[in-house]
Amino acid sequence: MSESRRVDVIRVTAGQTRHTSDAAAVEEPLEIRLHDRSFAVIMRTPGRDRELTAGFLLAEGIIDGAGDLGAVEHCRHPEHPEGHNVVNVFLLGEAAGRLETTLAGRRNVLANSSCGVCGRVSIDSLKTRALPITTATTIEAEVLHDLPDALRARQAVFERTGGLHAAALFTMDGSLVASDEDVGRHNAVDKVIGRLLLEERLPLTGHVLAVSGRTSFEIVQKAWLAGVEVICAVSAPSSLAIDLAAEAGITLLGFVRDRTFNVYSHAHRIRGV
Fold first, then answer.
1. Full domain range(s) for residue 44
2. For residue 151, what is the domain's CATH number?
3. Which of the residues are catalytic?
4. CA–CA gap between residue 182 and residue 185 (Å, rounded)
5. 8 Å CB contact between 228 and 210
6. Is 89 helix (H, G, I), strand (E, B) or coil?
7. Is there a contact between 50 and 194 (Cβ–Cβ < 8 Å)?
8. Which of 65, 82, 117 delimits the end of a domain?
9. Please, are residues 161 and 24 in contact by the beta-carbon 8 Å criterion?
Protein backbone atom coordinates (compact mmCIF):
# COMPACT_ATOMS: atom_id res chain seq x y z
CA MET A 1 0.00 0.00 0.00
CA SER A 2 1.20 3.51 -0.83
CA GLU A 3 1.82 6.00 1.99
CA SER A 4 0.77 8.93 -0.21
CA ARG A 5 -1.36 9.59 -3.28
CA ARG A 6 -1.85 12.39 -5.77
CA VAL A 7 -4.90 14.62 -5.37
CA ASP A 8 -6.29 17.47 -7.46
CA VAL A 9 -5.98 20.94 -5.92
CA ILE A 10 -6.52 24.58 -6.86
CA ARG A 11 -3.41 26.50 -5.84
CA VAL A 12 -3.87 30.17 -4.99
CA THR A 13 -0.74 32.36 -5.08
CA ALA A 14 -0.84 36.14 -4.80
CA GLY A 15 -4.43 36.18 -6.08
CA GLN A 16 -3.66 33.91 -9.02
CA THR A 17 -5.20 30.43 -9.27
CA ARG A 18 -4.15 27.33 -11.15
CA HIS A 19 -5.28 23.71 -11.26
CA THR A 20 -2.55 21.27 -10.27
CA SER A 21 -1.98 18.20 -8.14
CA ASP A 22 -0.40 17.58 -4.75
CA ALA A 23 0.62 14.62 -2.60
CA ALA A 24 -1.61 13.73 0.36
CA ALA A 25 -0.75 11.35 3.18
CA VAL A 26 -2.87 8.20 3.05
CA GLU A 27 -5.08 7.52 6.07
CA GLU A 28 -7.05 4.27 6.40
CA PRO A 29 -8.57 2.30 9.29
CA LEU A 30 -6.77 -0.71 10.70
CA GLU A 31 -8.92 -3.19 12.59
CA ILE A 32 -7.04 -5.21 15.21
CA ARG A 33 -8.63 -8.56 16.03
CA LEU A 34 -7.73 -10.91 18.86
CA HIS A 35 -8.41 -14.53 17.95
CA ASP A 36 -10.76 -13.42 15.11
CA ARG A 37 -12.69 -11.05 17.42
CA SER A 38 -12.64 -7.30 16.95
CA PHE A 39 -10.61 -5.43 19.58
CA ALA A 40 -9.80 -1.96 18.22
CA VAL A 41 -9.82 0.22 15.12
CA ILE A 42 -6.92 2.64 14.57
CA MET A 43 -6.71 5.32 11.89
CA ARG A 44 -3.22 5.02 10.46
CA THR A 45 -0.96 5.31 7.43
CA PRO A 46 -0.71 1.83 5.86
CA GLY A 47 2.62 0.10 6.33
CA ARG A 48 4.34 -1.79 9.16
CA ASP A 49 0.93 -2.87 10.44
CA ARG A 50 2.39 -5.83 12.35
CA GLU A 51 4.78 -3.52 14.19
CA LEU A 52 2.01 -1.01 14.86
CA THR A 53 -0.20 -3.76 16.26
CA ALA A 54 2.53 -5.17 18.51
CA GLY A 55 3.42 -1.73 19.88
CA PHE A 56 -0.23 -0.88 20.45
CA LEU A 57 -0.92 -4.13 22.32
CA LEU A 58 2.12 -3.55 24.53
CA ALA A 59 0.96 -0.04 25.43
CA GLU A 60 -2.57 -1.29 26.09
CA GLY A 61 -1.28 -3.93 28.52
CA ILE A 62 -2.54 -6.84 26.43
CA ILE A 63 0.97 -8.28 26.10
CA ASP A 64 4.16 -7.92 28.11
CA GLY A 65 6.57 -8.91 25.38
CA ALA A 66 7.17 -10.90 22.22
CA GLY A 67 6.62 -14.17 24.09
CA ASP A 68 2.91 -13.34 24.40
CA LEU A 69 2.46 -13.20 20.62
CA GLY A 70 1.70 -16.19 18.45
CA ALA A 71 0.67 -15.09 14.96
CA VAL A 72 0.28 -11.42 13.93
CA GLU A 73 -1.04 -11.53 10.38
CA HIS A 74 -3.14 -9.63 7.87
CA CYS A 75 -6.45 -11.28 7.10
CA ARG A 76 -6.36 -12.65 3.56
CA HIS A 77 -9.52 -13.91 1.90
CA PRO A 78 -10.45 -13.75 -1.80
CA GLU A 79 -13.90 -12.41 -0.92
CA HIS A 80 -12.51 -9.70 1.35
CA PRO A 81 -9.88 -7.68 -0.56
CA GLU A 82 -9.92 -5.11 2.24
CA GLY A 83 -8.03 -7.63 4.39
CA HIS A 84 -4.92 -5.45 4.21
CA ASN A 85 -6.75 -3.23 6.73
CA VAL A 86 -7.32 -6.07 9.22
CA VAL A 87 -4.67 -7.67 11.42
CA ASN A 88 -5.55 -10.79 13.39
CA VAL A 89 -3.51 -11.60 16.51
CA PHE A 90 -3.30 -14.91 18.34
CA LEU A 91 -1.99 -14.65 21.88
CA LEU A 92 0.00 -17.17 23.88
CA GLY A 93 0.32 -18.11 27.54
CA GLU A 94 -1.18 -15.84 30.18
CA ALA A 95 -2.14 -13.25 27.58
CA ALA A 96 -4.30 -15.86 25.85
CA GLY A 97 -5.76 -16.90 29.20
CA ARG A 98 -6.88 -13.30 29.78
CA LEU A 99 -8.59 -13.03 26.39
CA GLU A 100 -12.20 -12.98 27.61
CA THR A 101 -11.37 -10.46 30.36
CA THR A 102 -9.45 -8.35 27.85
CA LEU A 103 -12.33 -8.22 25.37
CA ALA A 104 -14.91 -7.54 28.09
CA GLY A 105 -12.75 -4.78 29.53
CA ARG A 106 -12.35 -3.19 26.11
CA ARG A 107 -16.11 -3.05 25.63
CA ASN A 108 -16.45 -1.36 29.01
CA VAL A 109 -13.81 1.24 28.16
CA LEU A 110 -15.47 2.05 24.83
CA ALA A 111 -18.90 2.33 26.44
CA ASN A 112 -17.61 4.78 29.02
CA SER A 113 -15.02 6.69 27.00
CA SER A 114 -16.93 9.97 27.21
CA CYS A 115 -16.47 10.05 30.98
CA GLY A 116 -12.74 10.77 30.79
CA VAL A 117 -9.96 9.37 32.95
CA CYS A 118 -8.25 11.12 35.83
CA GLY A 119 -4.59 11.75 35.05
CA ARG A 120 -3.41 10.80 38.53
CA VAL A 121 -5.34 7.53 38.37
CA SER A 122 -3.77 6.80 34.98
CA ILE A 123 -0.27 7.27 36.38
CA ASP A 124 -1.00 5.14 39.43
CA SER A 125 -2.38 2.32 37.26
CA LEU A 126 0.76 2.37 35.10
CA LYS A 127 2.92 2.03 38.21
CA THR A 128 1.35 -1.39 38.78
CA ARG A 129 2.65 -2.52 35.36
CA ALA A 130 6.13 -1.02 35.24
CA LEU A 131 8.81 -0.06 37.74
CA PRO A 132 10.53 3.33 37.45
CA ILE A 133 13.52 3.23 35.10
CA THR A 134 16.60 3.43 37.31
CA THR A 135 19.32 2.85 34.70
CA ALA A 136 21.32 5.99 34.01
CA THR A 137 23.02 5.72 30.64
CA THR A 138 24.31 9.20 29.80
CA ILE A 139 24.27 11.19 26.59
CA GLU A 140 26.15 14.25 25.35
CA ALA A 141 24.12 17.40 24.79
CA GLU A 142 25.76 17.68 21.37
CA VAL A 143 24.19 14.38 20.32
CA LEU A 144 20.75 15.61 21.40
CA HIS A 145 21.14 18.77 19.33
CA ASP A 146 21.67 16.64 16.21
CA LEU A 147 18.69 14.30 16.65
CA PRO A 148 15.94 16.53 15.15
CA ASP A 149 17.89 16.82 11.88
CA ALA A 150 18.58 13.09 11.89
CA LEU A 151 14.87 12.44 12.41
CA ARG A 152 13.84 14.88 9.68
CA ALA A 153 16.18 13.16 7.25
CA ARG A 154 14.09 9.99 7.71
CA GLN A 155 10.78 11.72 6.89
CA ALA A 156 10.54 10.90 3.20
CA VAL A 157 6.74 10.88 3.06
CA PHE A 158 6.51 14.09 5.09
CA GLU A 159 8.70 15.79 2.50
CA ARG A 160 6.14 14.85 -0.18
CA THR A 161 2.97 15.53 1.81
CA GLY A 162 3.69 17.64 4.91
CA GLY A 163 1.10 15.46 6.64
CA LEU A 164 2.90 12.83 8.71
CA HIS A 165 4.43 12.60 12.18
CA ALA A 166 7.67 10.72 12.74
CA ALA A 167 9.39 8.80 15.51
CA ALA A 168 12.85 7.31 15.65
CA LEU A 169 14.93 5.35 18.11
CA PHE A 170 18.60 6.19 18.56
CA THR A 171 21.42 4.85 20.69
CA MET A 172 23.08 7.25 23.14
CA ASP A 173 25.83 8.00 20.60
CA GLY A 174 23.24 9.11 18.03
CA SER A 175 23.18 5.98 15.87
CA LEU A 176 19.80 5.32 14.25
CA VAL A 177 18.13 2.07 15.27
CA ALA A 178 14.64 2.39 13.73
CA SER A 179 12.29 5.05 12.40
CA ASP A 180 8.79 5.37 11.00
CA GLU A 181 6.11 7.83 9.90
CA ASP A 182 2.35 7.91 10.35
CA VAL A 183 -0.58 10.31 10.33
CA GLY A 184 -0.85 9.61 14.07
CA ARG A 185 2.06 10.56 16.32
CA HIS A 186 1.19 7.70 18.67
CA ASN A 187 1.12 5.26 15.75
CA ALA A 188 4.62 6.27 14.65
CA VAL A 189 5.89 5.49 18.16
CA ASP A 190 4.01 2.17 18.22
CA LYS A 191 5.53 1.16 14.88
CA VAL A 192 9.06 1.85 16.08
CA ILE A 193 8.64 0.16 19.46
CA GLY A 194 6.64 -2.69 17.93
CA ARG A 195 9.45 -3.43 15.49
CA LEU A 196 11.96 -3.83 18.32
CA LEU A 197 9.44 -5.84 20.34
CA LEU A 198 8.98 -8.32 17.47
CA GLU A 199 12.77 -8.59 17.27
CA GLU A 200 12.76 -9.38 21.03
CA ARG A 201 15.00 -6.39 21.84
CA LEU A 202 13.01 -4.91 24.74
CA PRO A 203 13.67 -3.34 27.20
CA LEU A 204 15.22 -0.45 25.26
CA THR A 205 17.78 0.55 27.87
CA GLY A 206 20.36 2.95 26.49
CA HIS A 207 18.09 4.42 23.82
CA VAL A 208 16.55 7.79 22.97
CA LEU A 209 13.08 8.14 21.45
CA ALA A 210 12.87 11.20 19.18
CA VAL A 211 9.46 12.49 18.04
CA SER A 212 8.62 15.17 15.51
CA GLY A 213 5.79 16.88 17.40
CA ARG A 214 4.70 17.44 20.96
CA THR A 215 4.98 14.85 23.72
CA SER A 216 1.73 13.60 25.20
CA PHE A 217 1.00 11.36 28.17
CA GLU A 218 0.50 8.42 25.79
CA ILE A 219 3.93 8.78 24.19
CA VAL A 220 5.65 8.78 27.58
CA GLN A 221 3.54 5.75 28.55
CA LYS A 222 4.69 3.82 25.48
CA ALA A 223 8.33 4.75 26.10
CA TRP A 224 8.12 3.71 29.76
CA LEU A 225 6.66 0.29 29.01
CA ALA A 226 9.42 -0.25 26.43
CA GLY A 227 12.17 0.80 28.86
CA VAL A 228 13.30 3.92 26.94
CA GLU A 229 15.44 6.22 29.09
CA VAL A 230 15.26 9.52 27.14
CA ILE A 231 12.52 11.21 25.10
CA CYS A 232 13.52 14.06 22.78
CA ALA A 233 10.81 16.17 21.10
CA VAL A 234 10.98 19.19 18.82
CA SER A 235 7.86 20.66 20.44
CA ALA A 236 6.33 20.96 23.91
CA PRO A 237 5.32 18.26 26.38
CA SER A 238 1.96 18.33 28.12
CA SER A 239 1.79 18.77 31.88
CA LEU A 240 0.69 15.17 32.36
CA ALA A 241 3.56 13.95 30.16
CA ILE A 242 5.97 15.80 32.45
CA ASP A 243 4.38 14.28 35.55
CA LEU A 244 4.53 10.78 34.09
CA ALA A 245 8.15 11.14 32.95
CA ALA A 246 9.12 12.22 36.46
CA GLU A 247 7.37 9.17 37.96
CA ALA A 248 8.77 6.81 35.31
CA GLY A 249 12.40 7.86 35.69
CA ILE A 250 12.54 9.10 32.09
CA THR A 251 14.60 12.08 30.96
CA LEU A 252 12.17 14.28 29.03
CA LEU A 253 13.32 17.03 26.67
CA GLY A 254 11.22 19.48 24.70
CA PHE A 255 11.81 22.25 22.14
CA VAL A 256 14.92 20.48 20.87
CA ARG A 257 15.72 22.76 17.97
CA ASP A 258 18.09 25.55 16.95
CA ARG A 259 20.68 24.09 19.34
CA THR A 260 18.56 24.67 22.46
CA PHE A 261 16.31 22.43 24.54
CA ASN A 262 14.39 22.33 27.81
CA VAL A 263 14.89 19.46 30.28
CA TYR A 264 11.73 18.66 32.24
CA SER A 265 12.81 15.62 34.25
CA HIS A 266 15.82 13.53 35.25
CA ALA A 267 18.55 15.76 33.82
CA HIS A 268 21.25 13.52 35.32
CA ARG A 269 21.46 11.52 32.08
CA ILE A 270 22.67 14.53 30.07
CA ARG A 271 26.38 15.11 30.45
CA GLY A 272 27.24 18.72 31.23
CA VAL A 273 23.75 19.73 32.46
1. 28-117
2. 3.40.140.10
3. 115
4. 7
5. no
6. strand
7. yes
8. 117
9. yes
The predicted pLDDT at position 15 comes to: 67
- Cα 47 to the center of its chain, rounded Å: 14
pLDDT(8) > 90: no
Q: For residue 27, which of 189, 183, 166, 164 has the smallest C-alpha distance?
A: 183
Model confidence at 18, pLDDT cuts 50, 70, 90, reads confident
Is residue 155 assigned to a domain?
yes
Residue 2, in any domain of the structure: no
State residue 129's pLDDT score: 85
Mention every residue, 6+ apart, whose C-beta is less than 8 A from residue 25: 3, 4, 45, 157, 161, 163, 164, 183
**Residue 16 resides in a domain:** no
User: Are 248 and 220 within 8 A, CB to CB?
Assistant: yes
- Cβ neighbours, 10 Å, residue 154: 18
Q: What digits encode the pLDDT tens for the residues 78-97?
A: 655 566 889 999 999 999 99
Predicted structure pTM score: 0.85
Q: Is residue 6 part of a domain?
A: no
Q: Would the pLDDT of 239 be above 70? A: yes
Same domain, 245 and 143: yes
Of residues 29, 59, 25, the one with CA closest to residue 44: 29
Residues 6 or more apart whose CB falls under 8 angstroms from that of 250 comprise 133, 220, 223, 224, 228, 229, 230, 231, 244, 265, 266
